[in-house]
Amino acid sequence: xxxxxxxxxxxxxxxxxxxxxxxxxxxxxxxxxxxxxxxxxxxxxxxxxxxxxxxxxxxxxxxxxxxxxxxxxxxxxxxxxxxxxxxxxxxxxxxxxxxxxxxxxxxxxxxxxxxxxxxxxxxxxxxxxxxxxxxxxxxxxxxxxxxxxxxxxxxxxxxxxxxxxxxxxxxxxxxxxxxxxxxxxxxxxxxxxxxxxxxxxxxxxxxxxxxxxxxxxxxxxxxxxxxxxxxxxxxxxxxxxxxxxxxxxxxxxxxxxxxxxxxxxxxxxxxxxxxxxxxxxxxxxxxxxxxxxxxxxxxxxxxxxxxxxxxxxxxxxxxxxxxxxxxxxxxxxxxxxxxxxxxxxxxxxxxxxxx
Length: 355
Prior knowledge:
The chain is of the alpha+beta class. The chain folds into 3 domains: 120 residues, no CATH class; 124 residues, Roll (SH3 type barrels), CATH 2.30.30; 84 residues, 2-Layer Sandwich (Alpha-Beta Plaits), CATH 3.30.70.100. The protein has 12 helices and 8 strands. The strands form 2 sheets. A 5-stranded antiparallel beta sheet has the order 4-3-2-1-5. Helix 3 packs antiparallel against helix 5.
């Protein structure tokens, strides 16, 4: 009260009136500037449909008029003779208001990025939305935490001990919840790097299923038998993941065996028959067909081809048609398929030796 009394008597009525007029003019000017900037940015956004114009509009609209008041008062106080303590108080209030307003702007930028990131998802995935919201929350927490430290530092508080305490506390918390944090960061890695997405059919070690949900701590797959498979996110990323949904085609390699009694002329023609059979199928591309090796009970031929569609049912339909065609062609050509056999040669001893 004594400082206010000194400030009041240090200036006459005219100076106080001028100071009030300056403060009012600055406040009105800032409000008009905010309103005009919003109108201009909305017009630009409507004409160009630019994302940065929408974000700039939202950021300007987040300007708080009550935070402009300390700035206006500081402008008005510049024409007055004030005690040093009052002058420092007004200056600190204006600076704190500017820092708070900057935090609102940065926070709004993060929110706009988050909203547009969610809107870009063609199918709303709860795991993706949750991860993006966590990123946005962490970003805003960092912004406001730094703003609080700057404000306390400007007010004269010693924040060194506070920062050290926060550091030690953060390390302790991190050690206590390191498994949870590991799964959380693994979830963010899955969402951002996308080794698979919801709907992909993947194989993890000996388990396989279709992705249902990527959560904060766990990922859920629906197996072919209908059971729900739950993986820890960190364990999932440590495993070898095979993503069949990302396949462009399927490579098939199989062998058939014919009996050793097959004539040489027909053996020479079998690779050609196999090539013709595979080439006659739609959505296939032959790689090779060869007489591979002499087996224990058969002469082995190897065929390699591609099905130009990753769908498993289509692959099975094509392979079934090829098997039927091979069986039919070999039957017409008189070539017999081999199966495990063993020939036993019995030698009869002469009668004299037997006696």
